[in-house]
Amino acid sequence: xxEYQLYCFAQSGNSYRAALxxxxxxxxxxxxxxxxxEGETRTAExxxxxxxxxxxxxxxxxxxxxxxxxxxxxxxxxxSGKFLPRGEDDRLETLRxxxxxxxxxxxxxxxxxxxxxxxxxxxxxxxxxxxxGRIDGALGILDKHLANRSYIVGSExxxxxxxxxxxxxxxxxEFGFDIAAEHKNIGAWLNRIKALPxxxxxxNLMPGYPLxx
Length: 213
Known about the structure:
Blueprint: E1 4-8, H1 13-25, E2 29-33, H2 44-49, E3 58-61, E4 64-67, H3 69-80, H4 87-118, H5 125-145, H6 159-164, H7 172-175, H8 179-182, H9 184-194, H10 202-205
Parallel strand pairs: 1-2
Antiparallel strand pairs: 1-3, 3-4
Helix pairs in contact: 1-3, 4-5
């Protein structure tokens, strides 16, 4: 058995944050497929044995079982010594951007994409329009922040970057708009991360793609 196990599925950007981190730091890990679209996370068994919150990802390392991608990223960074922010100010700035991502960007992108592409039937156009407005605002903030810097915090990649990219490598057709093409600074930043040894697309890194009909 691998040193780390990650409960995940290919369509989950939250899971992708953790899977990408595991790949980039070069540890021995394996995926455990979560049948999200068949309702596995809503079952009593999953909530009693894997994660009481009924969510993925979940990282298993020895006796530890960790959920929430920000917690997983922090744990792996501290254990590996990689992608850690330097000093108190950078640690706080990293946390600030992870929280921004979780509350203002990733959450809206995930919901919009689900309603636009994965839900049957599709979401109400009025609801989608509301979410799109929130997404545009968050992406504008991120693009402006990246105008004169290579990474989110300081001059090096940190877990702030790995949190924020969670949903940004999925195909444009799943959103109905092209994030990288419409935001040149985000696009350049995504290409920098994509060039790192160990980077892989979410559909190649985690199980469950394509979805069965």
